[in-house]
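Exercise: predict the fold of this chain.
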Amino acid sequence: MIVAVLSALAEPTRLAAMHLLADGSEHCVCELMRKLGATQSRMSRHMQVLKQAGLVVDRREAQWVRYRINPELTPPLARLVEAALERQIMVTESVG
């Protein structure tokens, strides 16, 4: 499982999606697409990888699918996600 989690977080678009979801809210694919500059099919595929890794959960609402970080992450996985998100912020800040 840890390999799937690390692999999922290693891809920049997926890590950026996790960063957006870190606000604790649900976000629809359309919003993630717009903010990350991804096509619908690409964003849906990225979210499927995150879901398969157990990092996010989804909820269907009519034609929309809304995602949020899995509230049942184990404490070690939650810490790993937090560390990855913190690292992403530092990398983004140092590049900008």
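Check your answer against the key: Residues 75-95 form the longest helix (21 residues).
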